[in-house]
Amino acid sequence: MKKFIILIPIYNDWKSLTKLLISIGKNIKNIKGAQFDCIVVNDFSTIKNPKITIPPEINSIKIIHMNKNRGHARCNAFGIKYLSENLDLDYLILMDGDGEDRPEEIKLLVDKIFLEPNKSVVAKRIKRSEGPLFQMLYRLHKYLTLLTTGKLINFGNYSCLTKSDLKMLSTKASLWSSYSGSFKHNVKNYNEVNSFRGMRYFGPTQMSLFKLVIHSFSIIAVFKYRLFFISLTLLASFHYLGIFLKFNFVLFQILIVLFNIFIFIVSFRESEKELENSKLHIVNIENLTH
Question: pTM of the predicted model, to two decimals?
Answer without folding.
Answer: 0.92
